[in-house]
Amino acid sequence: MDRRDCLRLLAQSNVGRVAFSERALPTIRPVGYTLVGALVVLRATPKALARQLDGQVVAFEVDEIDHVHASGWSVLVTGTARLLQQAPESVAITPSSLTGRWLPAVTSVSSEMNRDPPGQRRALAGS
Amino acid sequence: MATRTIGQVPRSLMSLVERHGGSAVANARAAAATIGSAVAERSELTRLLLLSDTASVVLDAGDLTVMDVEECLRLLAGNSYGRLAYIARRGVPDIVPVNYVLHGADILIRSGAGPKLQAAERGDLVAFEVDQVDDLGQLGWSVVVHGSATKVSWGDQQHLASRQPWANGPRSQVIRILARRISGRRLHGA
User: Which residues of B touch A33 (CB under 8 A)?
Assistant: First the structure.
């Protein structure tokens, strides 16, 4: 998946998951977002979380699985999160890497277990 | 102080600042005022930010209930798709969507060779999350399992396979997250 595909898919959705360190342990939580150019702006995060994310290298993932048609995609953004002074409770992630992949037809654990090794994400130069 | 505040403005926003504020953005107040004028001019950035505010994706903004472990386990048992967060390299987190099986309070994930299997081989602490959140992010729930990842041995795999409705080929690997903490929140929306 190329960078344009990644951005196009990111623009389609508005809820993703952000992974970050909390007391030196990885954690993950769902969060709303808006894509602004190539900037991912996490919205309406509580101030405590927003401050916690500020300056951290975080991963942000958005995916969509269509169980009916057994298809899907996953896009991963990695970058440093910055508190937006102008928009309280918003955090911007400037992607240092943007990768995406089409997910194979996975509708059950058994098909997951039987399929070949998962396709690798292809890393693309970030901005 | 002023420099620090301006420094926190992402680079892509700085071009916006410069476009609307000229070259003399000397302090944080000026930067804020410049952004403010951008709001007035309905720049693409602020328009989207305002739109997002209108959409009010409110997660963790207070309208949530902490769930007990029993409810968390019930939700984990009733789903088969989640996201694994782990530290892939030099402190950089990664998130991968995965299918899983709940085994007791542990999470079993099929894996091929790769960074997440390496994390399991190191016994890294990981986070695993399952959620159902509506398109506006206002209603739903989220359960997070924290624990150490381990690579399941072949003997254990056979044992598990006999108890689970899936078959393992000889090349498949299974990661087991030994749950140390399970937490969940339910979102109620506005």
Answer: 57
